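Researcher: Next sequence.
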Amino acid sequence: MTFRTGHVGLNVSDLDASKDFYRKVFGFEIVGESAEEGRRYAFLGLDGTLVLTLWQQSEGRFATGLPGLHHLSFQVPDVETVRRAETVIRELGAAFHHDGIVPHGEGASSGGVFFEDPDGIRLEIYAPAGAGDALAPTPGAPTCGFF
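Model: Next structure:
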C-alpha cells in the first residue's frame, strides 16, 4: 500500500477571518462551504483539488502544549514564491516565529518563513533551495521545530 496526504482539516474560531487569511496568503479558492449556523465550514483548494478544510468548531487560540498538530507546512517551487508570500503575511500582520526567510538548519539550502494563522496555528511556507544565505535561527536544531 502507498499513502499520501489528502487534505488537512483545521478547527478555527472565526471562519470568515480564516477563509480570508488562507485565501490571501495561499491563493486558495473556495471549493465548497456551509453558512448554516452550527455547521459552518469551508473547503479550500487549488485548481479544483481540495487542500484544506476549515471547521468553525473551536474557541480560543491554538494550544502548542497539547498533543496534536505541531505545524502545517507548504512547499513552493522557489524562494521567490516564499518572498511573495512573506510580503502578504506581513501585510496581514501575522505573527512570525523567525525574522524573514531562514534555512531549515545549519548549512541547509531549503528554508522558508514560519508564522501563525489568526488562531495561532503554526504554519510554514518553504522552498527546497535558495535559503542557504541566511543564518539558521537555532543552531543544532531544525528550524521547523519552532524552538
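Model: Strands lie at 8-12, 29-34, 41-46, 49-56, 72-75, 102-103, 111-116, 122-127. DSSP finds two helices and eight strands in the chain.
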